[in-house]
């Protein structure tokens, strides 16, 4: 499935030739993780760019090593090959500081066999004449045109971009104007190796994200557009969030930041928990990130085919789903609103229901209670159980719901200091009896009423 109707440009090359730096330069944002460690960009990563009025989508790929036998690196090579198949134009990046290698030669031979338009970039021409001396060696690969470029500084990119755009299919002038993006965005979050990538692949029905038993193999957030029962969704598969104290080096630190940004971009998060491990402090921490940012949430209890069996063995005759649900509710009471879904990504069981649950949560996240109905609910709740502190009664004069995503209720009262957290929770529970808001937090803000609010 293509990410969009824009032309697709795949950036390929062996590890550490500067593909991610070029990718970030072309899209103007630090999207791909960039570090001087070979093999750091391990999945296809998509982002949009624009040149001379033509919009396109870039695909950054893991470095290709043609003779590699390591299983993970073999998967990376396979994904790069898929990216090349998807692309309208392929950009082949070579490092001028190291010269042409055996992998470059083998990849060049493979690219020549492809019918796709090809733009060859001799990268890392950063310091003037010294790197330019190696550019002729790139021509020895048999390409008629090579573009010397410094992705770091942007030198030479204009000519390369002209060539890339020149290969695009003719633009459809009759295409309707792009409408505002109202697609529901779902971030798949969780600790490393709980099955997030497997869950996304089960949803999509294709291996979009590398799946490996090595914890932390999804280092970047990968956006994937998907049509689900006629609705276009965007899935953000995030790298596993590790505890801050256990984040090793700049790569893992940047990964945590990326996952948090993915949560910020999402309408709803699917918090994946490994049922074999039960609820861990790490799960609570990740859930806390989503809760603090006011995101709708579904707790996805994954690997349930195995977890269910564990519960049955420990508690024969009990309902495994009920037992595990109670554990979730007790351990994550700050997310009592979150819906629960039980899945097995490897068998596909429960996966469709989990997506449907996420869509319900997203709808509740955007739900607004009419002002008149909201005030009636709160008036009935306060009349049924008035709140007094040292003989002084809390009076709610008026309520409004100024924003959604997350739903936020503002109460105008006689004295905000009188509002105890327990009474705020009581009011929330009363609201949820009529409007469940399942899957979404409900924020309640208390303000001192001005005279005009008191008149309502």
Short description:
The chain has 456 residues and is α/β, with parallel strands linked by helices. The chain has helices at residues 19-27, 71-86, 102-113, 129-132, 135-139, 157-166, 196-204, 249-265, 281-292, 304-314, 320-331, 351-365, 371-384, 421-434, 451-454; strands at 8-12, 45-51, 54-60, 89-95, 118-123, 146-148, 184-189, 222-228, 231-237, 268-274, 296-302, 339-342, 388-389, 392-393, 396-403, 408-413, 443-448.
**Second rung of CATH, namely the architecture of the largest domain:** 3-Layer(aba) Sandwich
Rg over alpha carbons: 26 Å
- Total helix count? 15
CATH C-level class of the largest domain is Alpha Beta
Q: Helix- and strand-based class?
A: alpha/beta
Outline, from the CA principal axes?
elongated
CATH topology of the largest domain: Rossmann fold
Strand content: 15-25%
Model description:
With 456 residues, the chain is an alpha/beta fold. It folds into three domains: 8-166, Rossmann fold (3-Layer(aba) Sandwich), CATH 3.40.50.300; 184-365, P-loop containing nucleotide triphosphate hydrolases (Rossmann fold, 3-Layer(aba) Sandwich), CATH 3.40.50; 371-454, K homology (KH) domain (GMP Synthetase, Chain A, domain 3), CATH 3.30.300.20. The chain has 15 helices and 17 strands. The longest helix is centred in the middle third of the chain and has 17 residues, at 249-265. GTPase that plays an essential role in the late steps of ribosome biogenesis. It comes from Capsulimonas corticalis. Keywords: GTP-binding, Nucleotide-binding, Repeat, Ribosome biogenesis.
């Amino acid at each position: 499935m293509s990410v969009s109707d824009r032309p697709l440009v795949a950036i390929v090359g062996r590890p550490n030739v500067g593909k991610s730096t070029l990718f970030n330069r072309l899209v103007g944002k630090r999207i791909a993780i960039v570090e001087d460690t070979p093999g750091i960009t391990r999945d296809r990563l998509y982002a949009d760019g624009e040149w001379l009025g033509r919009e396109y989508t870039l695909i950054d790929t893991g470095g290709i090593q043609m003779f590699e036998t390591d299983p993970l690196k073999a998967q990376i090579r396979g994904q790069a090959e898929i990216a090349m198949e998807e692309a309208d134009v392929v950009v082949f990046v070579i490092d001028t500081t190291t010269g042409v290698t055996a992998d470059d030669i083998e990849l060049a031979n493979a690219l020549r066999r492809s019918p796709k338009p090809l733009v060859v970039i001799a990268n890392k021409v950063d310091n003037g004449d010294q790197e330019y001396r190696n550019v002729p060696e790139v021509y020895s690969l048999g390409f008629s045109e090579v573009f010397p470029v410094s992705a770091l500084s942007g030198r030479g990119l204009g000519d390369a971009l002209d060539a890339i755009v020149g290969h695009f299919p003719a633009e459809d002038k009759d295409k309707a104007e792009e409408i505002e993006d109202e697609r529901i965005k779902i971030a798949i979050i969780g600790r490393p190796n709980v099955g997030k990538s497997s869950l996304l692949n089960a949803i999509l029905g294709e291996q979009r994200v590398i799946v490996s038993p090595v914890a932390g193999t999804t280092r970047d957030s990968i956006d994937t557009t998907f049509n689900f029962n006629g609705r276009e969704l965007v899935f953000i598969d995030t790298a596993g969030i590790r505890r801050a104290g256990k984040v090793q080096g700049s790569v893992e630190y940047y990964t945590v930041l990326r996952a948090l940004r993915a949560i910020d971009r999402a309408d709803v998060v699917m918090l994946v928990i490994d049922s074999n491990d039960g609820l861990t402090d790490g799960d609570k921490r990740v859930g806390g990130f989503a809760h603090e940012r006011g995101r709708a949430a579904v707790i996805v209890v994954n690997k349930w085919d195995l977890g269910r069996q564990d519960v049955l063995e420990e508690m024969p005759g009990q309902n495994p789903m009920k037992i595990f649900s109670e554990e979730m509710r007790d351990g994550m009471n700050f997310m009592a609103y979150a819906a629960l879904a039980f899945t097995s990504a490897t068998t596909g069981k429960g996966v469709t229901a989990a997506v449907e649950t996420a869509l319900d949560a997203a709808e509740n996240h955007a739900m607004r209670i009419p002002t008149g109905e909201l005030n009636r609910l709160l008036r009935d709740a306060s009349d049924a159980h008035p709140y007094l502190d040292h003989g002084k009664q809390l009076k709610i004069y008026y309520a409004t719901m100024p924003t959604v995503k997350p739903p936020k209720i503002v109460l105008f009262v006689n004295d905000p200091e009188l509002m105890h957290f327990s009474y705020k929770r009581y009011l929330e529970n009363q609201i949820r009896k009529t409007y469940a808001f399942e899957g979404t937090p409900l924020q309640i803000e208390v303000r001192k009423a001005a005279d005009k609010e008191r008149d309502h």
